[in-house]
Amino acid sequence: METVLKHHSKNKYGQYFTPKVVADFMIDITNISKDSKILEPSCGEGIFLELLTQKGYTNLTAYEIDKELSQEFSCVRYESFVSANINEKFDLIIGNPPYIRWKNLENELKEELSLNYLWNKYFNSLCDYLYIFIVKSIELLEENGQLIFICPEYWMNTTHSITLRNYMVENGFFEEIYHFNETPIFEKVTISTVIFKYVKSEKVKETIKVTKYHTSQKLTKQILENIKYQIAFNGVEYIQASQFKINTRWLLQTDIIKAELKKLEISCRKKEHEAIPNLFNESKHEYHTIGDFCDIGNGMVSGLDKAFQVNGDILNKIETNSIIKVVKAKDIKPFYINSITEYIYIKENIEENEFKKVYPNFYNHFQKYLTELENRYQYNKKIHYWEWVFMRNFNLFNKPEKRIFVPCKERISNKNYFRFALVAKNIFPTQDVTAIFRKSNTKESIEYIVAYLNTPIVFQWLSNNGIVKGNIIEFSEKPINSIPFRKINWANKEEVNLHNFISEQTKNYINTQNEEIKISINDSFEKLLKIN
Are the beta carbons of 202 and 218 closer than 8 angstroms? Predict the structure, then answer.
């Protein structure tokens, strides 16, 4: 998330300057007096200071590490906020702190952090530069003081930010959170962003006022005015969420939805003897996951799909036998696939003269793509233009059994379902598709598994717990592995009957696409999830 600065060829300080309309909104959600002590820890070009001054606030202090960002304000101290020795407390700290991952930090900033007490107490080299700004700001707040920041939202969910989240829970509460999902706030940057209002306090409010604005429409004064006063309009959702707890991911959801997701995890919970990790299956989850029962692989990479698609060419017998059937993401629907594409796949390692002789029609076909094929990423090896660049997971895909395909990335801004499709054997996925296979010791049918993955509750769980970037959910191996899985208790006749019914109904739905059948499948899963 880096913009080009006027003063630097490289954004070494993680600066993303806040639009005036957004800064004005952030100031308007404060509730402080005109003589309150206000701090801005990274003032940049001074938009917050300008607006605060215009609104009659006079007791201002600001820090800016970048001396090239000259300001007309006498309150600005040109030094690093991280290292600054600040011996006063503030009623409000507001701003847009820098966002830089550790690996992208300048050496001088890494060295500064290595000497910082707060950083060493709470963080490590997996953490973001942003975190120290949040913790130090809270340390500098008066009791009941307010912290209002705009920043990316990823730290609310990631594992390595758990110490930051715990610190915030233990030192105060959130009053308001505004979640802007893929809304273009910063120039030439698309990222899921939050504005939060946090209060340092020993007393905690029970709920957080949460606003979700999930459209790509640019923020205007009118939109932000509507959001401030919770006026309903298209693309916005207002909810009340419970205060966050320590050692948890933070979900911006109602208690009802959180309870539904918890029910799913409880229904998938391992029995006592199953929860003991062993050398071969060591799981950090208390519940069964898809990864316990399935093998997962990302699709193969041709490097230039259009060059490998047969497109009705006349072929000889050897060429005909050198075709594989492929499914691309666009052809996947929930439960089934729309179409199959034939791709060229040369198995043997041959030189160009032999290739031209044995595969003359393929040779002619490839000639019009030569330049593009030679410019493919080569994965540090010599790859002939007729060869796929990365045959990853080929042995898995070559297994003679049905498999489940899902697009590697799925946009959910305008739909409430994912596309897990059951696919016949001998059909391969390309790089925009991830494939799921039953493990050899899995008793649940592949039809049961694909039906389960297409249920509304799994959609809800992934939307809140998956790898979500903006409105895009990723379906690579790791996030699919982590999905809770409702294992069948084969000693329970009711569960076995439900499993068999779901499996048969799934076959029927794939053949007929009768929506009533899909309703009966989901109803069966609801019954199954209620069985202890």
Answer: no
Which tens digits make up the pLDDT trace of 58-78?
999 999 988 776 567 889 999
Same domain, 331 and 220: no
E-assigned strand segments in 37-140: 38-40, 60-63, 76-77, 90-95
195 DSSP β-pair partners? 150, 178
Secondary structure of 171-198 in HEC code, one letter for each residue: HEEEEEEEEECCCCCCCCCCCCEEEEEE
Paired with 200 in beta bridges are 172
Q: Check residue 100 and report its DSSP letter.
A: -
Q: Which domain holds residue 446?
A: 290-348+387-530
Q: How far apart are CA 503 and CA 452, in angstroms?
A: 10
The secondary structure element, H or E, covering residue 117 is helix 117-122
Nearest CA among 40, 250, 258 for reference residue 166: 250
CA 418 – CA 470 distance, rounded (Å): 16
Is residue 461 helix, strand or coil?
helix
**Which has the closest alpha carbon to 351: 324, 386, 305, 309?**
386
Which amino acid is present at 441?
N
Q: Which of 445, 420, 442 is nearest to 433 (CA)?
A: 420
- Could you say which of 226, 252, 278 is where a domain stops? 252
Which of 33-42, 127-136, 211-220 is the least confident region?
Answer: 211-220
How is residue 27 annotated by DSSP? H
CATH number, domain with residue 152: 3.40.50.150
Cβ of 152: how many Cβ atoms within 10 Å? 16
Are 294 and 237 in the same domain?
Answer: no
Residues 6 or more apart whose Cβ sits within 8 Å of residue 148: 26, 29, 30, 92, 93, 94, 95, 195, 196, 197, 198
By C-alpha distance, which of 162, 103, 98, 167 is closest to 133? 98
Helix (H) or strand (E) holding 294: strand 294-298
Question: What is the rounded distance in angstroms from the CA atom of residue 260 to the CA atom of residue 396?
Answer: 35
pLDDT in tens, 212-263: 998 878 899 999 999 999 999 988 999 999 999 999 888 888 889 988 999 9
